[in-house]
Amino acid sequence: MHKILNPILLVLMANQLVTGLVHRSLSREAFEFLHEGGGILLAVLAGVHLILNFGWVKASYFSKKSK
Known about the structure:
79% of the residues lie in helices and 0% in strands. The chain is mainly alpha-helical. Helix 1 (2-21) runs antiparallel to helix 2 (28-52). The N and C termini lie far apart (36 Å).
């Protein structure tokens, strides 16, 4: 699942960067579809990514440190 999800997240982040930089060159409809729609999809898939990696997050940030 990660081999599919991670490249999609990379493309969506690149989409946000590029459409943010060239937003004046895009029509309003194109900007809404690419930037705003891509942003929503990016947020959803980032949440899925976090859920899939929650074991690592829990072990790295919420485990008790031994002294």
